[in-house]
Amino acid sequence: MADLNNFCLRQTCPVSGARVGELVTAHGLVPTPVFLPVGSQGTVKTLTPEEVKGIGLKMVLANTYHLYLRPGIEVVDRMGGLHKFMAWDGAILTDSGGYQVFSLAPLRRVSDEGVTFRSHIDGSEHFLTPELAIQYQEVLGADIIMVLDECSAYDDSFEKVQEAMVRTHQWAERCRKAQRRDDQTLYAIIQGGVFPQLRRQSAEYLTSLGFSGYAIGGLSVGEPKEVTLAMVEETAALLPGDKPRYLMGVGSPEDIVEGVARGIDIFDSALPTRVARNGALFTWQGRRNIRNAAFSRMEQSLVPDCDCYTCRTFSAAYLHHLFKSEELLAYRLATIHNLKFIHDLMNKIRSAILSGTFSAFKEGFRANYRPTDEQARFNQKQKWLKSRNRFK
Amino acid sequence: MADLNNFCLRQTCPVSGARVGELVTAHGLVPTPVFLPVGSQGTVKTLTPEEVKGIGLKMVLANTYHLYLRPGIEVVDRMGGLHKFMAWDGAILTDSGGYQVFSLAPLRRVSDEGVTFRSHIDGSEHFLTPELAIQYQEVLGADIIMVLDECSAYDDSFEKVQEAMVRTHQWAERCRKAQRRDDQTLYAIIQGGVFPQLRRQSAEYLTSLGFSGYAIGGLSVGEPKEVTLAMVEETAALLPGDKPRYLMGVGSPEDIVEGVARGIDIFDSALPTRVARNGALFTWQGRRNIRNAAFSRMEQSLVPDCDCYTCRTFSAAYLHHLFKSEELLAYRLATIHNLKFIHDLMNKIRSAILSGTFSAFKEGFRANYRPTDEQARFNQKQKWLKSRNRFK
Fold first, then answer.
1. Distance between CA A341 and CA A346 in Å, rounded?
2. pLDDT tens per residue, range A154-203
3. What is the Cα–Cα distance from B391 to B386, expressed in whole angstroms?
4. What is the CA angle B361-B367-B372, rounded to 5?
5. Omega cis (within 30) before B106
6. Which residue of B has its CA nearest to A85?
7. Measured between alpha carbons, how far is residue A62 from residues A137, A274, B70 in Å?
8. What is the 3-state secondary structure (H, E, C) of A115-172?
């Protein structure tokens, strides 16, 4: 498969290694560093495609695992592919389903050939191989597609993580060979858990095969924040400078800033939209819970200088009222705000890198933004994953 | 209080008595017959004000009972009134809270002075009088406000219904006297249950007092459809021709057509938005459940000639997928479709009356539209009311 010239690197911060670039896709240019909102089931939760575009977002993530189980790859095919099905003419990246099989599906069995798993929706049994993961993603038709990988858990032993990594390498090669379409770019996923030696090995092996982009997988799964960042730093340093680098599953404002500082170009996470639906809204001082009584009489918007639709239109008191009344509009207005906040953050980051002031920007951001307690965040995510990880 | 010239009657169908007119409000002209979408808590469920306006709707209904309990009348006052609070610059009608006290609140006690009730949210005790109902509605600042009435149940005895009616009359007079603002129009509510004699008495008494408009209350609460229509016919015939007539709580397509044929100008109901969230979408042949497997591969929109945002943008298969996946966007897209359908129906009705073809329109509509089974509909509504009528 011809290696597409899918990434233009514009500028690199000489101090930190933070980068500004551009992804070139059949559905438009995507400036990097970029955050991809998650639309696993073919919809960024609560929003129409027009709203996603209105925020300024140019690329979204969808999920092969979810779409394969429902509505089924064949249905999306009949509807003319994923772009048409979800009425989104911007760029799309699909994850292969690897992470979801290992985090959502019960009763999975892995062999070199592939992975057998049960649907988290109805318990039905399915078999996924690297070849099928590519075939499905070619039908969905995203602009960037991902190899099938085996994800380790945070508490897995060195041997177990190593075994999963080796299998991920073999699967990456099979994915490359299975690729038929030449208008999609395929990214490899570097594994190796929290073991620097394995991360190095994985980066070296996969870059030697030559992919169009490189993702760092298997992080942000419960390990302490310093470990995540150390692994990112370790791995990113081994990746070719002219290819995009994608840190999977990371998306809090504070983590994005740190990731960019370590040379990451692409982020995705359900966090900004998930916490929005819980009433946690981003401000430049940290997250605020709009359900708090302090907002019940606040005539101003939550973030007065924010020009998202929500802050331009409604008082914090109204948003508070919608959340207390459990009105569906609440979840949507909060989602719009949080995605616009992240989008504004990415714009500020890009400007800072281009003007050579990224380090100062990062210090300023850290001085003001009080991150959410890590343990609280982890507990919340586990609770959320658990609530989903059952037959319906 | 000066009687505002708030209604211009444009044309009356000589055969049926169906009317075309215009409500004149401080927030714009509202062509009648008109359907008001329900936004009890200061939001038409799932929609932004822009979307409501985009559908073409010019007036919405909000509820004193709900807004009094949460966020509280005083909060809306601090935020500059209801229009500003919910960012809606079109017209608003507020119901007084009478119907909600008698349908939602547990443990109510009625006296001539007023009604004591417990909140359906937290069980707290409250006291509402005609004077307070007006005072609260003047603070909320709707364009049309309603008197406080006592609603009977469908199975109440003649004596009980009569007693409630007499009290409603006394309360209507007190509401008139309590009115201070001269930029809001006050409508009386005719009661009398399913007893023609009482309906006549109520219409005669209240019209003799001279209100700016007349609502028919206490119908669509479980009685058979023929009884509803007989009561509407009976009552409307006794109302002055130059004042608007409002049939409260009625809003299925088939009932609207019948109501218009009996001289009704204004309708409101949560039905179109409530059933939308259940996946029941209006077509010109009747309601369709989008969850039905028949729609899982339908490339066209549900109603191909519909130009609502939902039908213009998405296939029936996508909407089906969103409902099966319990995605929040589903409820919103269905709400947009159903409200646009009702809005289109009102436009067709007005055109037909103006061109002298309303009877033919009505017959054509009835020949195509298969109404939902009445008992099924009633059961569904009771189930819904029951699910709400508890402490949270």
1. 9
2. 999 999 999 999 999 999 999 999 999 999 999 999 999 999 999 999 99
3. 11
4. 110
5. no
6. B318
7. 10, 15, 38
8. EEEECCCCCCEEEECHHHHHHHHHHHCCCEEECCCCCCCCCCCHHHHHHHHHHHHHHH
Q: Are strands A34-37 and B115-118 parallel, antiparallel or unpaired?
A: unpaired
Distance separating alpha carbons of residues A84 and B294, to the nearest angstrom? 20
Q: Which of chain A's residues have a Cβ under 8 Å away from the Cβ of B83?
A: none
> C-alpha A229: how far from its chain's center?
16
Q: What is the pTM of this model?
A: 0.95
- Classified as helix, coil or strand, A12 is strand
pLDDT per position as a tens digit, B171-230: 999 999 999 999 999 999 999 999 999 999 999 999 999 999 999 999 988 899 999 999
| ipTM score for this prediction | 0.95
DSSP classification of residue B307: -
CA distance B45 to chain A (A): 7
Total H helices, total E strands in chain B: 16, 16
Distance CA B189, CA B171 (A): 10
Question: Phi/psi at B201 (nearest 5 deg)?
Answer: -60, -45
Question: Largest Cα–Cα distance of chain A, in whole Å?
Answer: 60
Contact at 8 Å (CB) between A7 and A213? Answer: yes
Give SS3 for A89.
Answer: coil
Question: Which residues are CB-neighbours of B69 under 8 A, at least 6 positions away?
Answer: B119, B120, B121, B126
How would you write A206-268 as a 3-class SS string? HHHHCCCEEEECCCCCCCCHHHHHHHHHHHHCCCCCCCCEEECCCCCHHHHHHHHHCCCCEEE
State how far the Cα of B21 lies from the Cα of B11, in Å rounded to an integer: 7
Q: In chain A, what residues touch B70 (CB-CB under 8 Å)?
A: 321, 324-325
Answer whether A291's CB lies under 8 Å from A317's CB: no
Backbone angles phi, psi at B133, to 5 degrees: -60, -40
Among A38, A43, A301, which would you mutate to test the B interface (most chain B Cβ atoms within 10 Å of its Cβ)? A43
Query: Of B48, B80, B317, which is closest to A329 when you measure between CB atoms?
Result: B48
Return contacts of A223-231, CB within 8 angstroms, 24+ apart. A223/A154, A223/A194, A224/A374, A225/A255, A225/A374, A227/A194, A228/A255, A229/A258, A229/A262, A230/A196, A231/A192, A231/A194, A231/A196, A231/A199
With residues binned 3-state (H G I as helix, E B as strand, rest as coil), the percentages for chain B, rounded to 5, are: 45, 20, 40
Reduced to 3 states (helix: H, G, I; strand: E, B; else coil), residue B197 is helix
Tell me the β-bridge partners of B117: B126
* Cβ–Cβ gap A327/B297 under 8 Å: no
Whether the Cβ atoms of residue A25 and residue A143 lie closer than 8 Å to each other: yes
